[in-house]
Design brief:
By secondary structure, the chain is of the alpha/beta class. The chain has four helices and nine strands. It is globular and about 40 Å long. The chain binds zinc ion.
Amino acid sequence: MESVLRLPGIYYVVTIDHRRLPFSLEGLRRYRGTAMSKAKRRYYRKRVDFFRLLIKMKLWPSRSGILHGIRSIERKGPYAEITTHCGHVFLATTSKNSRAARWLRNKWAFKACRACRVPDWKLEKYSKTFFAQHYGSMLEEHGSGDSPKE
Ligand SMILES: [Zn+2]
């Protein structure tokens, strides 16, 4: 099993060519001007529908701390059938309280899967994606989903 990197307070994702991209806001501040693209920050609600979030992000954090790229995803009742670029097919619960949902929100995955070849731009986009309690998109199908309703 590949080792999982975790430094207190700062979360990184390790790219397939062993560079580290900062994940947290603190990490972004420290690394400002290096490695990061000009991509703007995006925010999603913490309670955003997990299935829609997966469709949007196309990333899957495995239990071993590896971030896989999602090739395809299909809803099957309360589950999603996910196929990764490295060829794994599995059913995952789409509950927003699930392990994977929490890991994706909290960025508890530290290494990009080599076999999936997750591109840097996608990792950078993820590193600039944040989840907030009362702010951000709910990814709703009707309307923009971005306007505050509560
Ligand atoms: Zn993979």
